[in-house]
Amino acid sequence: MVRKSHIDPQRVREEIAIAAARMIAEDGLDYSTAKRKAARQVVGEAKIGGEFLPDNDQIEEEIREYQAIFQSDSQPAVLRRMREAALDWMERLKPFDPYLTGAVLNGTAGEHSDIHLQCFCDNPKEVAIYLLNANVQYDVSETRHFAGRGYVETLSFLIRERGEEPIGVHIALYGTDDLRGAVRADGRGRLARANAAAVRALLDDPGHSDRPPLEIGG
After folding, report:
1. Most buried pick, 57, 98, 102, 113, via CB within 10 A?
2. Does a structural domain hold residue 3?
3. Are 104 and 86 in contact (CB under 8 A)?
4. How confident is the model over 20-70, as pLDDT tens digits?
5. Count of the separate structural domains present in the chain
């Protein structure tokens, strides 16, 4: 009788997280795609249970470690440039209560990352009108609602600065009521979104730029 070999779920999760982090940092894959490809790389085509898959927090920590080891000479400057660009657009979109989310906020943004903003206003269509009046050409798509309540319209465009690579900007449009309860810290004290004041504070305090502040103003 052949004894079934023991597989340590924790070790498999670690290996998948490390592989996924490299794909995100180097190739710009999203978390879901990177996790799926990393799982195939580590365990092949075999089906595995959820206990073998890392969560996004574990992958995020591996991204930070990868960037610290392999991209420490370039990633901080890329992150700062993207946060400055995000703040510039948040100030332009001030009437629509913009918030920053994603990798540019949490500090893991790299050269393949985009800026992800969320606007909360009574009439989200006004954001589209503003962009049209500003001669900004945008594409329209949908993004899953952060609370899982269907999808929201999203406007996407490129920022082009002389001598720099273009930066993608995505503005997810929410109603004012969606903001209620949305700006809460998770169990680790981190925020999923932050307003312009918080982003400005991150730029003013680069020593703590890898973590968003725990409180944000209105």
Report:
1. 98
2. no
3. yes
4. 999 999 999 999 999 999 999 998 887 777 888 999 999 999 999 999 999
5. 2
- What pLDDT, in 10s, does the model give residues 191-213? 789 999 999 999 998 655 445 44
Q: Is 97 found in the same domain as 36?
A: no
Which among 112, 120, 114, 100 has a CA at the least distance from the CA of 209?
Answer: 100
Distance CA 74, CA 90 (A): 25
Considering the domain architecture, whether residues 111 and 145 belong to the same structural domain is answered as: yes
Average pLDDT estimate for 148-164? 91
Q: Strands of 151-159's sheet, edge to edge? A: 139-144, 151-159, 167-175, 115-121, 98-101, 193-194
Q: Which among 70, 102, 118 is the end of a domain?
A: 70
User: 110 in a domain, yes or no?
Assistant: yes
